[in-house]
Amino acid sequence: MAIGIRTVELRKVYNSAPPFAAGGMFPPRAAARDTKKGKQPKPEIVALNGISLEVRPGEIFGLLGPNGAGKSTTVGVLTTRVRPTSGEAWVGEHEVWRDQATVKRLIGVVPQRPNLDFSLTAAEILTFHGAYFGLSAKDRNERASHLLEKFKLTDRADQMVRGFSGGMMQRLSIARAMMHDPQILFLDEPSAGLDPQTRILLWELIREYNQAGKTILLTTHYMEEADALCDRLAIVDHGKIIALGTPAELKASIPGGYLLRLRFGKQPVELMNGLRGLIGVREVHAQDTTGADIYADRGGSLIPEIASLAIATGAELLDVHISEPSLENLFLHHTGRSLRD
Amino acid sequence: MNWKAFAALVARDAHVARRNALQLFLQTFLQPLLFVFIFGRVMVSSGYMPAVYKSLLLPGIMAISMVFTGVWAVAMPLIAEFQWTKEIEDRLLAPIENVYLAIEKVLFGMIQAIVAGVVVLPLGWLLLRPIDMGVHSPITFAVITILVAGFSACGGLALGCSMNQQHIGLMFSMVLTPMIFFGCTYYPWSALNAFPVLQKIVLINPLVYASEGLRASLVPGFPHLSMIAVLFALLFFDILLLAVGLRQFEKKAVS
């Protein structure tokens, strides 16, 4: 039976630099402020700031957000690797921090950066992993060769993994996570650094595993991946969930749907007011001193009107970028920043 | 407690140790045997050292081998596995409480330290015979050996979870080398009578009790610290280093 995940007001404050995969690039804001006063209190980095979410049994759930948003820390808490500062994290009936050994039995984890056991060969990595989870020698050998076959690693089975390419290590990490047939699979940025072909293979494997009744939680900062794979998504930024729903619902929540990013020679008030008055325009956000983001019901057909308006107000239209409804736009709408910023 | 998972963790370490057997063997025995050869054989046969020095030296060499092996066997893999790649994470995700992984590391380090100690004795004996030495009380000898292996492996855990890869050289020059030279390994503690302050200071070095304890048990004819003091001191260092090691391990294991 598939099991779900639940977190309640999860907070995590790091007192030292957080681990790389959990937002090591996070700006140490509090630290910079405190050291200026001459005191040296421990730097505090808020990685999670009250994350509450519920992942239903059997769904593919995505956490989407830029680097340092708190995705990996959320996964870390749910997989016993990070101790939450406050709040609760549940895997099925079990509170993660209190019931670690049971939770570990239910989950499989694919980390952001492969953490394969360099002292072992590819096949041994799988069979020892099976042994940690109590599989019999026969079961673990059978399962290991099945997974090596499936992940196209059979010819490398007896080689040490030190010399493996990034893609091979990633495939082996996923095979290892599936070795004990966990009820929930966590994948932290599974397709980072993979070539497009391998990415598609990976997506197929994830869907197939999900169809066997397993719950999947993945983090990504690729919109296409979230769009293609996830039943539901949470968009995370600065340790908070800023939007949650199915990809379609989330996209529908963007006013208008189309985003036009414009740049003018200058940005007079009449121009901005004029833009707001155009038919189909839902929202206008001024950007810097020369730009404007427009959310609208239509895209290209607005351009002639915008161009005339610009001429009429003496502001030359310099640059236009039109994008169709997408999660990227959604992120931009909620945060004012692009996902890749 | 999940015994199956624990056994699998031990099996993994044994497998890796078997794969590196030759390297481990050289690493463990080359240095002590060279020492035995030069000091016990060359210096004694040439008359620069009296023949009794052989019996005094061997228990100290056994102590060094055990401590060096125990610390190395636990600390080095931990330092590597907690680094950048975090390869220990797959074992931290095994369905068992994290603390048992640390205990498994200590247990496996102890086994290696005991093997190192027990093998260096006959090898030394071969090089040095005839030598006046014997196990007078097997139980005391076993207890001392286990306690020495214990503090070595626990010390390895504490060091391995407190140091970064770039500090390994420092660990050797700042921790292990002074420990060995001030560990009463090549001389009995009573030889420091002429240096009363130093004689007191070296008592913070657990290797002193290892050398003195093994000397008391193998060559009781030489002056040595009292057996009771040695046993208590070794037990104290075992518990202290285990507590520190487990705490450091937990800190490293969970962020």
SSE order and pairing:
The complex is a heterodimer of chains A (341) and B (255).
Chain A: E1 5-14, H1 29-36, E2 45-55, E3 60-64, H2 71-78, E4 86-91, E5 94-95, H3 100-106, E6 107-110, H4 122-132, H5 137-150, H6 166-178, E7 184-188, H7 196-211, E8 215-220, H8 223-229, E9 232-237, E10 240-245, H9 247-252, E11 258-264, H10 269-277, E12 281-287, E13 291-296, H11 303-312, E14 317-323, H12 327-335
Parallel strand pairs in A: 3-8, 3-9, 6-7, 7-8
Antiparallel strand pairs in A: 1-2, 1-4, 4-5, 9-10, 11-13, 11-14, 12-13
Chain B: H1 3-19, H2 21-45, H3 53-82, H4 89-92, H5 98-128, H6 138-160, H7 168-181, H8 196-201, H9 206-218, H10 227-253
Summarize the structure.
The complex is a heterodimer of chains A (341) and B (255). By secondary structure, chain A is α/β, with parallel strands linked by helices.
Report on this model:
The complex is a heterodimer of chains A (about 350) and B (about 260). The model of chain A is unreliable at about 20-35 (pLDDT under 50). Chain A is built from 12 helices and 14 strands. In chain A, helix 4 (about 120-130) crosses helix 5. Chain A is α/β, with parallel strands linked by helices and about 350 residues long. Chain A has helices spanning about 30-35, 70-80, 100-105, 120-130, 135-150, 165-180, 195-210, 225-230, 245-250, 270-275, 305-310, 325-335, and strands spanning about 5-15, 45-55, 60-65, 85-90, 95, 105-110, 185-190, 215-220, 230-235, 240-245, 260-265, 280-285, 290-295, 315-325. The longest helix of chain B has about 30 residues, at about 100-130. The model of chain B has no long low-confidence stretch (mean pLDDT about 90). Chain B has one domain (about 5-255). In chain B, helix 2 runs antiparallel to helix 3 and helix 6 (about 140-160) runs parallel beside helix 10. Chain B is built from 10 helices and no strands. The interface of A and B includes residues 115 and 134 of A.
Number of strands of chain B: 0
- Helix content bin of chain A: 25-40%
Shape of chain A: elongated
Strand order of the largest sheet of chain A: 6-7-8-3-9-10
Question: How are helices and strands ordered from N to C of chain B?
Answer: HHHHHHHHHH
Series of secondary-structure elements of chain A, N-terminal to C-terminal? EHEEHEEHEHHHEHEHEEHEHEEHEH
Number of domains of chain B: 1
Q: How much is the average pLDDT of chain B?
A: 90
Main interface: chain pair and counts:
A-B, 35 and 27 residues
Task: Please provide the count of β strands of chain A.
Answer: 14
Structural class of chain B: mainly alpha
Tally of separate helices of chain B: 10
CATH topology of the largest domain in chain A, what is it called? Rossmann fold
What class do helices, strands and sheet pairing of chain A give? alpha/beta
Largest sheet of chain A: 6 strands, mixed
Q: Judging by the overall fold, what is the CATH architecture of the largest domain in chain A?
A: 3-Layer(aba) Sandwich
Tell me the span between the first and last alpha carbons of chain A.
40 Å
Span from first to last CA of chain B? 23 Å
Q: Which stretches of chain B are low in confidence, meaning pLDDT under 50 for 5 or more residues running?
A: none
Can you count the helices of chain A?
12
